[in-house]
Amino acid sequence: MNYYFRILQLTKKYKKEIFLTILLNLLVVVFSLFSITVLIPTLKIIFKNTVDVTSPLPYTGLASIKSYLESNLNYYITTQSRLIGKSGVLVRILIFGTAMFFFKNLFRYLAAISMAYIQVGVERDLRNKIHAKILQLPTRYFNEQRKGDIIAKMTTDINEIQWALLGSFQRLIQDPLMIIMTLTTMIILSPQLTGFVIIFIPIMGLLINRIGNTLKKPSGQAKEAMGRILSHVDENISGLPIIKSYVAEERTQRAFQQTNEKYFRYMTRMFRRRELSSPMSEFLGSMIIITIMWYGSRLILEKGQLEPEVFITYIALFYQIIAPAKNISNAIFDIKRAESSGERIFSLLDAPDNMQDAPDAYAKNTFDQDLVLQDVCFTYDEKQVINNFSLTIKKGQQIALVGQSGSGKTTISSLINRFFDVSSGAIFMDGIDYRQLKIKSLRKLIGYISQDAILFNDSIKNNLLLAKPDATDTEIIAAAKAANAHDFILATEKGYETNIGEGGSKLSGGQRQRLTIARAILKDPPILVLDEATSALDSESEKLVQKALETIMEHRTSIVIAHRLSTVKHSDRIIVMKEGVIIEEGTHDDLLAQNGAYKKLVDLQNL
Fold first, then answer.
1. Average pLDDT, stretch 410-414?
2. What is the pTM of this model?
């Protein structure tokens, strides 16, 4: 129940709505009881079982409450029958009963509306929390997670909590009130019969709770299987060209079917146990009804301690308990099932964020002197990726990082962007340790252009405004022109308002990359990190993008990670890396003269 109470803590901001919901549910119960107990005077008149009472008994306390109510009821029927006749009294009683049913259903509707506001509000708040956490967590976290599983937590798990956990909250307000107040009324009507009934209720609760405890495990397994299903779908859509190229449709379908079959088995097991609650509670309720009828008939026929109309009303009241009892049992099942969703969601919300600002961190708004990596080491999955890496980058310099795949170039760019923190050593900006700077202020000083042009399913303009939300149209156009993107933008259907599709799918690779450059130009950062920004482009696109890059790198400090060495030969310094260490360093000409690793890389590309 731990996660259930954590979810309920999210309702604290809805205190007024919760109070209103409880009040409305209380009114539902009150009017529901009135609508049932109106049977007693109705049946008294029909059965002609009223006693003429000319003066009512005075109230002498709860011990004599039944006699007091019965005397006053008979007094009302006696006096009113003399004035308007028993038929007139019956009409009045039925009108009163109709009014009770009306108000019962009116308040039930209002209670449901009030509760719906809380449910949908908590769903919204929880989804906002998850999305904010996703944006907050370091990129390293998502390297170890399935994207489909995260999406499942945002969708199916939250929906489960919305209708199961929070829906049970509504039932756990109204139904216990109904049971308590109905039992109170039943005690007033017949203490002996109610005492006999109460013996069976704990037995029902124990049986229901035992079955509920068996639901949690299969429910959690079903959620995990759904996450894997979503991951399969996401990966298969993204990799459809490769699947078709390798004629792997059947193999891919088999893998999907295996995961889907697991989900089927878990859900079947869960529903089999869940659906047991309704027939079980109904059977137990029926057994109690039969027992009540047996014992109640004895009280009427043998002992004369119960009137027939009271007994019929008593049975009707007991039926009022059966439905709430079933609802509570279903609520317990729902809570047990949704606990696994809560566990999955809080596993994300509770994920540690190691990339937080230090308590004494401060904002830095300018880059003035240099960027220094001092004895930097970085370990990932117990493997040392960067080892004692030291490099000083003066303001205005263009530094290139080259080397074979897996040499650690991209890791260095991630450390400079502070996507990760160093395992040991330090990075300094103008003599200040990175960890003493506010992360957001640091990243505002850095423009990052990756090999994959990351764009969003939005207009061209809004994709560019990501860099500078308050940029004017003039600034946007100037940035696009500098990136050699303005002409192709104007050639699209709606110009800068054109939607570019998911990931920029409506544009070519070169066009997408030029948009990312335009975005970086609009940001106007003093430091640029370019991670193989042209490696995925054809020759014509590369020339256009390279020209745009030369424009943006002018008068800026640049760290360029390059696969094509022709793009970095004019760099101030070229750093050659291998297995996380620097093996050569110098200008293009110096490194060629050394006839070492860099010369071999150049010769291989010339081939």
1. 89
2. 0.71
